[in-house]
Design brief:
By secondary structure, the chain is mainly α. Helices cover 62% and strands 0% of the residues. The protein has a domain of 80 residues. It is globular and about 45 Å long.
Amino acid sequence: MTAYPLKISNETLFELEDNLLLFFTGFSRKSGDILKDQDKRSKESDADMLENLHHVKDLGFSSKRLLEAGRVAEFGELLHEHWEFKKQRSPGMSNAQVDEWYGLARKNGALGGKLVGAAF
């Protein structure tokens, strides 16, 4: 696997620090079943799954470029796009409560979000 080192200026790091919030939802989800389904669908050449995964990969490269250019607001918007695509891959990615909180954050100025913490 090729490494793509990230070169972010201190100014951009400080802007990220000033604009990122971390919340504990109290929810966890099993990633094993979700990943097995994604793997199965990918191996079966499921066009929707493959297109989604390729798009998310491209979002990763775009995120790197935006961060290196100091374009933090656009990076936030890409986080939102990534989240929407990730939820399309499996209904187990989120739940009604998390979706409600995420929507509330967006209505109050959040540009995007990232849900982390799935367990195997």
